[in-house]
Design brief:
Order of helices and strands: HEHEHEHEH
Helix content: 40-55%
Structural class: alpha+beta
Shape: globular
Number of helices: 5
Distance between the termini: 19 Å
Number of strands: 4
Organism: Astyanax mexicanus (Blind cave fish)
Protein name: Growth arrest and DNA damage inducible gamma
GO cellular component, one term: cytoplasm
Family: Belongs to the GADD45 family.
Domain Ribosomal protein eL8/eL30/eS12/Gadd45: 11-91
Largest sheet: 4 strands, mixed
Length: 140
């Protein structure tokens, strides 16, 4: 059985390779505002060093509310740096990986088994009143 963390990484790598991955709180908020129907999945990452960052916490609260209002699946991971590394951030393109969005393909004719498993996981978590479930990323 493949873990949710492995599915998350797989879905994000496919999205990155297809140009459907957006990283950064402000960049993600812009896409959510401009075209909410294009968003397939949202990942929030919190590092220990940012736990007391009130501005980031406010952004997370607003992003979570937006996702709930627009029926967008959302998960939390506990290590933004690890997330950036797993996505192959060698050139610094994911300098802010606290929020990552996966958008839908433009042709609409796509299915991603990893992303579908994550949607089911999120739906099951919500039914247990865990609104933003935490996913453990695979080891480094």
């Amino acid at each position: 059985m493949v873990s949710e963390g492995a599915c998350l990484v797989e879905a994000m790598v496919v999205a990155r390779d297809e140009g459907r991955l957006t990283a950064g709180v402000y960049e993600c908020a812009k896409i959510m505002n401009d075209d909410p129907d294009s968003v397939a999945f949202c990942v929030l990452a919190m590092d220990e060093e940012f736990e007391c960052d009130i501005a980031l916490q406010i952004h997370f609260t607003l992003i979570q509310a937006f996702c709930f209002d627009n029926d967008i699946s959302i998960v939390r991971v506990s290590d933004a740096q690890h997330l950036a590394e797993l996505l192959g951030d060698k050139a610094g393109q994911l300098e802010d990986s606290h929020c990552v969005l996966i958008t839908n393909p433009t042709d609409g004719s796509w299915e991603d088994p990893a992303l579908e498993k994550l949607h089911v996981f999120c739906s099951e978590s919500r039914s247990c009143h865990e609104w933003v479930p935490e996913v453990t990323l695979p080891a480094r």
